[in-house]
Prior knowledge:
By secondary structure, the chain is of the alpha/beta class. The chain is about 40% helix and about 15% strand. The chain contains eleven helices and nine strands. It has a nine-stranded mixed β-sheet with strand order 1-2-3-5-4-6-7-8-9, with helices on both faces. It is globular.
Amino acid sequence: xxxxxxxxxxxxxxxxxxxxxxxxxxxxxxxxxxxxxxxxxxxxxxxxxxxxxxxxxxxxxxxxxxxxxxxxxxxxxxxxxxxxxxxxxxxxxxxxxxxxxxxxxxxxxxxxxxxxxxxxxxxxxxxxxxxxxxxxxxxxxxxxxxxxxxxxxxxxxxxxxxxxxxxxxxxxxxxxxxxxxxxxxxxxxxxxxxxxxxxxxxxxxxxxxxxxxxxxxxxxxxxxxxxxxxxxxxxxxxxxxxxxxxxxxxxxxxxxxxxxxxxxxxxxxxxxxxxxxxxxxxxxxxxxxxxxxxxxxxxxxxxxxxxxxxxxxxxxxxxxxxxxxxxxxxxxxxxxxxxxxxxxxxxxxxxxxxxxxxxxxxxxxxxxxxxxxxxxxxxxxxxxxxxx
Length: 388
């Protein structure tokens, strides 16, 4: 190696060192960009995963399982009606279970009017609600009965809990479900509330204008019924005693003690049983209407939890009922119904258009399932006219 080359060695080394440093710098820059890109990917893919998950859940909620009426109803369903088991989520992401009834001759390539039906308080969709849903489907409507949250096949813990706001939300969720079916016209959805559900559908309709026509049958104002009892027979002192008992029970349940239940239908009759309890017993405790949901107990059916039942005392469904107008309301009650006062009160407060329709020789529970007394022709004409 000559002297000139030897003189150039330091320069060559420095150049190589700079090159190496440059490569390292580039590599560091590349790694930095890679890390940034990776973080951005994670940030983007996180919501994307959530959206994908939600879409998959949505697909699940849209599934309709064809079933036979046997085992799901306490009465005969017309052969011209097809029955489906469905599930959909309310705004609280709780699964709400329902039965969808579709006339067999329905052209599903077109959009049709639909009706949602709610069961009596403490009951399930198989009791009474399915009677109405199946019969209205025979008359050409797409119908959906549902289990309120905490009852039947719908989600909610503890079981049999009272949550009137969530009950009302379930009806809006039912509108969500029906309004996204390709064969339902979302501008032609009506609703029927039986007994306690009558007050829940009114509560829902006040803030959900998608419910275009509202009918109640044998309605109970569950708020007034618990604050005042029938005919305002409960004193303030008695009300406070109930509240105190419920409050004490909260301590028991908070420390994992035994859950207590209240009201509902008696399981045995004796000479002291009140006539109204006998009326409910004849439906809920006999083959006429008895139904225990899967996983449930016959000893607990119809009975809400003691600690939650007082929540009804803060429930005022008839306040602002007049704001539902100009959507029409139909109040159906029996002339012998012990609950008649609630339909008359709602009718008095509601604005036009409204109608109070009284069935001769009908009691409260008669309109749960006595198809010879239930005015299906009246309901058909009401919804046909107002769900055009």
